[in-house]
C-alpha cells in the first residue's frame, strides 16, 4: 500500500479508535479479539443496554488492557474507586464480543473463608 502525505496507516487508525467492530472481531484501541461463535447465552450482556455507552479515558484504557491480557491468555485484575465504570466497561466489551460474564465483587468485607 502506498501512503500519500497526510494519510494514516491502518495501525494508526486502530490505535486512535476506541472500538472498531467487524463481522468476526472487535478491535479495542488496536487490540483485536475474536467474537464468540454463539453470543446468545444467558450470561452474555445484552447489547441494547450499552447503546449509549460513552468512551472516556478510563473505559478506553481499561478495555484496551483487558483485551491485551485476554489476547495473551493472562489474568487481569481490575481495581479502582467505586463507580468509575470498571464493571460497565467490561460488560459493554463482552456485549460486543458475545462473551459470557461471571464476576465476584471483592471489597473490604470479603471473607475468603466463606467462598
Main attributes of the structure:
115 residues, 3 helices, 3 strands
Summarize the biggest pleated sheet.
Answer: 3 strands, antiparallel
Q: Mean of the pLDDT scores?
A: 87
Structural class designation: alpha+beta
Number of helices: 3
Instruction: Return the string of H and E elements.
Output: HEEEHH
What amount of the residues lies in strands?
A: 5-15%
Helix content: 25-40%
Through-space gap between termini? 55 Å
- Model regions low in confidence, pLDDT < 50 over at least 5 residues: none
Which sequence of strands runs across the widest sheet? 1-2-3
Mass-distribution shape: globular
Gyration radius from CA atoms, angstroms: 16 Å
Number of strands: 3
Overview of this protein structure:
With 115 residues, the protein is α+β, with helices and mostly antiparallel strands. The protein has a domain at 38-107. The protein is built from 3 helices and 3 strands, in the order αβββαα. The chain has a 3-stranded antiparallel beta sheet, covered by helices on one side. β1 and β2 form a beta hairpin. α2 (57-71) crosses α3. The mean pLDDT is 87.
Outline of this structure?
By secondary structure, the chain is of the alpha+beta class.
Amino acid at each position: 500500500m502506498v501512503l500519500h502525505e497526510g494519510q494514516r496507516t491502518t495501525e494508526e487508525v486502530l490505535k486512535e479508535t476506541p472500538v472498531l467492530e467487524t463481522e468476526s472481531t472487535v478491535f479495542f484501541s488496536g487490540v483485536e479479539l475474536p467474537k464468540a461463535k454463539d453470543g446468545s447465552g444467558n450470561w452474555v450482556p445484552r447489547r441494547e443496554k450499552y447503546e449509549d455507552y460513552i468512551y472516556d479515558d478510563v473505559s478506553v484504557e481499561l478495555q484496551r488492557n483487558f483485551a491485551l491480557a485476554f489476547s495473551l491468555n493472562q489474568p487481569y485484575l481490575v481495581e479502582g474507586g467505586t463507580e468509575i465504570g470498571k464493571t460497565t466497561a467490561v460488560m459493554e466489551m463482552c456485549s460486543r464480543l458475545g462473551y459470557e460474564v461471571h464476576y465476584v465483587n471483592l471489597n473490604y468485607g470479603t471473607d475468603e473463608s466463606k467462598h
